[in-house]
Amino acid sequence: MIISAPSDIAFVVLGVPIYWYGVVLASAIFVAVLVGNKFFNFINGDSKKDIILEYAPLLIISGIFGARLYFCILNSGYYFSHPIEILDIRQGGLSIHGAIAGGILSLVLLSYKKNLKLLNILDSLSCSTILGQAIGRWGNYFNSEAYGIPVASQKWGLFIPEMKRIPQYSEFSLFHPTFLYESVLDLFAFFILGFLLFKFGKKYRGLIFFSYLLIYSIIRFFIERLRVDSAMNLGNIPIAEIVSIILFVVGFCGILFVIVNNLKIHIEK
């Protein structure tokens, strides 16, 4: 099966093209906020009900800002020469690792301002975030980006237009649809995290957040090994792989801490 390259323009309004990337990204954010709010209400009961919806603009702006800043830093050579393009995100250029960092920072500030339990918010939104990622990866499809190495067979794969191909792979036309691989894996991870949240979310604060870091780091690490368009490498190792390893360690240690801490509280009781 060959997946054809789509048009990147969804429609035109008053002569201004509206890109599918933006439509998909907006849909992903909308779903993630609604689902995250539902999860937060479940964990907290009636306490601070719907506060995620109330502060959604702050969370969205900080996430997008972090995602763009991170991407531009990793591609600083290009953006130093084209600074005006830093503001142009219509055709892509957002990093999920930057979005995670920006989102966490805004949640830390929100929890402090509204006297909320930080781990409860992180648990709720990390679970819904990976659902948003599963949807958002389809924006890469419409942009013909975030694809993998050429497929061995010419009978299936993602067709990438010549103008969107990495120069060293210009003679190839069919590539691994890594956006699709990650989207499916993210959706699977969402169901795992959702199960953990409803089963243990009220008792083991932080378990879902650290599980998210661990699970997504595994997904991204192996997907990154297939991709040919990594933003920046240290030697021959993509930055995304290094960050994934760090997040895996943080997630693993965090899960151990949450479990041990809860066992200690249970024993003391």
Q: Kindly estimate the percentage of residues that lie in beta strands according to DSSP.
A: 5-15%
What is the tally of helical segments? 9
Look at the helices and sheets and give the structural class.
mainly alpha
Strand order of the largest sheet: 1-4-5
- Number of strand elements: 7
| Quaternary organisation of the protein chains | single chain
Order of helices and strands: EEEHHHHHHEEHHEEH
Report the C-alpha radius of gyration, rounded: 20 Å
Let me know the average pLDDT. 87
- pLDDT < 50 runs, ≥5 residues: none
Which word captures the global form? Answer: globular
Helix content: 55-70%
Euclidean distance between termini CA atoms: 59 Å
User: What's the main sheet like?
Assistant: 3 strands, mixed
Describe the structure.
The chain has 9 helices and 7 strands. It has helices at 20-44, 51-54, 56-74, 76-81, 96-114, 118-143, 178-200, 207-224, 239-268; strands at 2-3, 9-13, 16-19, 157-159, 174-175, 233-234, 237-238. Strand 2 and strand 3 (16-19) form a beta hairpin. The chain is globular and about 65 Å long. The model has no long low-confidence stretch (mean pLDDT 87).
